[in-house]
Amino acid sequence: SSYSFPWLVLAIAMVRFYMEKGTHKGLYKSIQKTLKFFQTFALLEIVHCLIGIVPTSVIVAGVQVSSRIFMVWLITHSIKPIQNEESVVLFLVAWTVTEITRYSFYTFSLLDHLPYFIKWARYNFFIILYPVGVVGELLTIYAALPYVKKTGMFSIRLPNKYNVSFDYYYFLLITMASYIPLFPQLYFHMLRQRRKVLHGEVIVEKDD
Amino acid sequence: MKHYEVEILDAKTREKLCFLDKVEPHATIAEIKNLFTKTHPQWYPARQSLRLDPKGKSLKDEDVLQKLPVGTTATLYFRDLGAQISWVTVFLTEYAGPLFIYLLFYFRVPFIYGHKYDFTSSRHTVVHLACICHSFHYVKRLLETLFVHRFSHGTMPLRNIFKNCTYYWGFAAWMAYYINHPLYTPPTYGAQQVKLALAIFVICQLGNFSIHMALRDLRPAGEWPAPGKGGMVVGRLGKGGSHLPLLSCLPGSKTRKIPYPTKNPFTWLFLLVSCPNYTYEVGSWIGFAIMTQCLPVALFSLVGFTQMTIWAKGKHRSYLKEFRDYPPLRMPIIPFLL
Q1: Chain A interface disruption, residue of B291, B295, B299, B302, most A CBs within 10 A
Q2: What count of Cα atoms within 13 Å lies in the side-chain half-sphere of residue A7?
Q3: What's a Pfam family this protein contains (chain B) (predicted)?
């Protein structure tokens, strides 16, 4: 429904910028306010899953939304030098196309008028877009590492009166590593959904 | 005497796995499980779930065949619960880990802190005190597992041991690292804070132990199970894997009596909560967190509190379901509040 709107706005803004400037440099800066505003809105997604408006599981939605918010606020917003990296455009494009497709799918489903193309797109685009988005995100985090190490940002060192420490640099390394178990799970989940929806396959779920 | 026939089918594939004839009417599910194991030795009784309906609830070991809604040929459905491990083994492993791991940090074993700190000792009294408290806590848990607790279920799924040990061992290492660190900062309010925190810790440890003893005494050994032929065996696994009958305040155990305060003042908390052992446990860790003024300890307490609240609420609900006359004033874990 109205949730495609922010992503359409973003898509149009990105295309316009590139057509006017001919480069991706400065693109992030121009769309960042819109992106942050609407990305934070995505928290509502989780509420929708909880209430049941959207048929995605809360955990899957939770992981997706957290990783988006993490990228937007803790990486691109906070580490300005990496905003002009190509990898940023990569994940922005992946997110934008994915979300426009997904929300169009929900809208048309609710209206009971689902063109096959939308359904097809929703369950096939991700095959390329997911990996593209992941590559964009990982490359961006990787590019941010030297700045994080140099500035020691978001980190707490010993000694301090609460006897705790936190190293954002190592946290980012662990985050990158966590893509290894998490991404395949999400990807294969979508592949299973695709087989069920597009090919009417009956999937026997693994018992607990 | 009329004998029953029992056929056991796979719950998923409906394949006929076993046919038992001449089964006595007062045979228990436990005995049927034993018979089933004879034909399929890889499925020892502890990993068998037998039910009347493929998607239904598991039958209990103590259920008697003739009391079930079955004809003279009973059809039972089997599900494999997966590899099982005894509760005792899990508890011993998950508690021995933190005891040992904390000491590695306390003694500043090489490769944890810088080399110049190898095998040195902290100059802060509170650090030594913390080691004593932490070690005492886990020694107490180990001894309680061996001599006090009575487990109604013999086993749990094998993967639980990995999950549980990661939690206990991971947090123990994380806490111990900071408390025993050469750059450790003692509590802001000094000896006063440490003394108060120590008092809270000791009181809660005594309280927790008192509750464990009270729960153990709720039903002395030998009264349970209800007499069936030959008594009940639930999951015997290897040496020392035999269980003792009975229950403790563990999720899913079958309660028979409402716990009440005894002469021991620590048990008077039963007047206000259903699971005072959890209340005291949270109290101990809060004490330890105040004593060490260490944020990881506070986080560990918080996570533990969350889990124990879930367990306490479950326990409380099953008490309410089972007993009409359950004391209305009692809350699950925090008096008046939660």
Answers
A1: B295
A2: 20
A3: TECR_N
Nearest to B214 by CA among B162, B254, B266, B179: B266
Is the distance from CB of B298 to CB of B289 less than 8 angstroms?
Answer: yes
Quote the minimal CA–CA distance from B185 to chain A in Å: 6
Q: Would you state the structure tokens that stand for residue B172, as one six-digit string?
A: 């123990």
| Domain ranges within chain A, ordered by starting residue | 3-199
- Residue A154: exposure state from Cβ atoms within 10 A (0-12, 13-18, ≥19): middle
A202 touches chain B (CB under 8 A): no
Choosing among B183, B184, B188, B297, which should be mutated to test the A contact, i.e. which has the most A CBs within 10 A? B183
Q: Estimate to the nearest angstrom the gap between the alpha carbon of A63 and the chain centroid.
A: 9
Tell me the ipTM for this assembly. Answer: 0.74
Which domains occur in chain B, in start order? 4-82 (3.10.20.90), 87-220+255-322 (no CATH)
Contact B168, B94 (CB under 8 A): yes
User: Alpha helices, DSSP H only, in A27-115?
Assistant: 27-41, 43-51, 58-69, 86-110
B291: closest chain A residue by CA: A162
The closest alpha carbon to B200, from B126, B283, B135, B133, belongs to B283
Edge to edge, the sheet with strand B4-10 lists: B16-23, B4-10, B73-80, B48-51
| Chain A residue with the nearest C-alpha to that of B290 | A162
Beta bridge partners, B78, equal B10, B50
Q: Is the pLDDT of residue B237 over 50?
A: no
Catalytic residue status for A130: yes
Which pLDDT band, with edges at 50, 70 and 90, does B240 fall under? Answer: very low
- Are B194 and B128 in contact by the 8 Å Cβ rule? The answer is no
The region of weakest confidence among A50-59, A110-119, B110-119, B125-134 is A50-59
Spatial distance between the Cα atoms of B90 and B100, rounded to a whole number of angstroms: 16
Q: How many beta-carbon pairs below 8 A join chains A and B?
A: 30
- Measured CA to CA, the distance from residue A132 to residue B317 in angstroms comes to 49
Q: Which of B307, B312, B333 is nearest to B164 (CA)?
A: B307
Query: Parallel, antiparallel, or unpaired for β B155-157 and B84-86?
Result: antiparallel
How far apart, in Å, are the Cα atoms of A144 and each of A88, A139, A173, A185? 11, 9, 11, 26
Nearest to B290 by CA among B206, B202, B173, B182: B202
- pLDDT above 70: percentage of residues in chain B: 88
**B296/A164 Cβ within 8 A:** yes
Q: Quick check: B188 and A161 CB within 8 A? A: yes
- Section B292-300 average pLDDT: 97
pLDDT class of A134 with cuts at 50, 70, 90: very high
